[in-house]
Structures are given as C-alpha cells and as structure tokens.
Design a protein that fits this description.
Length: 120
C-alpha cells in the first residue's frame, strides 16, 4: 500500500511514517501543497493522510487534485480544529473517507489506513 502523508509538522509526519512503514506501507511525506501535488503527479497513491490546515498551501487543493489525478485514492483528514466537526467535509471532498484529530494514535491511524487501503 502506498501512503502520502501531507503534514506541516515534520516530527508528526515522521512518527506516522515510521509506524506505517513498520506495517508494510510505502510512505511518502510532504509538508506542503506543492510537494504533495508533485507526489501525486509522480507516484501512485492509495491513501492520503492530509492535515486540514496547511501552513503552505491548501488541503482542499491537494484533495481536489488527488480526486482528478488519482480518483481511487482515499483521503484521511487530520486536524486540530473543530471546523467541519459536523461532518460536512464529506459533502465538499468526495474522496474523503475519515476525519481524525491530529493527536490520533499511530496505531489507530494505521488501522484506518489498512481498512480504507484494503478497499482500494
């Protein structure tokens, strides 16, 4: 399974990446919109873990590009914000499959990746 992590906090991206690699995933890590778009142009991705709030760029732009370029890729959003806590993200982003708090445990995130990735 190929996973793209788009997370502006390098330490958090590294923790998630390390855990997913131990579970057998091939992982790409980007910290901003332009790097994430480059990954989506060059690599087949099954699951995208995408922070809803990016300092450099737009998570919506990344998800929108993924839905066009790799329509089978599912997006797991992570966020520190209560915005979209009503579930409306799923109305705006058709490839969104889950939304979790940023402090989600790596084990729970790995289980989500496996669940949605196996349905790929």
């Amino acid at each position: 399974m190929r996973v793209l992590i788009v997370e502006g906090k390098p330490d958090l991206g590294w923790i998630w990446s390390r855990h997913l690699k131990r579970r057998g995933c091939e992982v790409f890590v980007s910290s901003n919109q332009s790097d994430a778009i480059a990954n989506l142009q060059n690599d087949n991705i099954d699951i995208i873990i995408l922070n809803l709030i990016l300092e450099n760029g737009s998570a919506f732009a990344v998800a929108d590009f993924a839905s066009y370029r790799q329509p089978k890729a599912k997006v797991i959003f992570v966020t520190d914000s209560g915005f979209f806590s009503d579930g409306s993200i799923f109305q705006h982003i058709p490839n969104a499959c889950a939304m979790m708090p940023t402090e989600v445990s790596p084990e729970d995130l790995g289980a989500l990746v496996e669940h949605y990735g196996s349905n790929h």
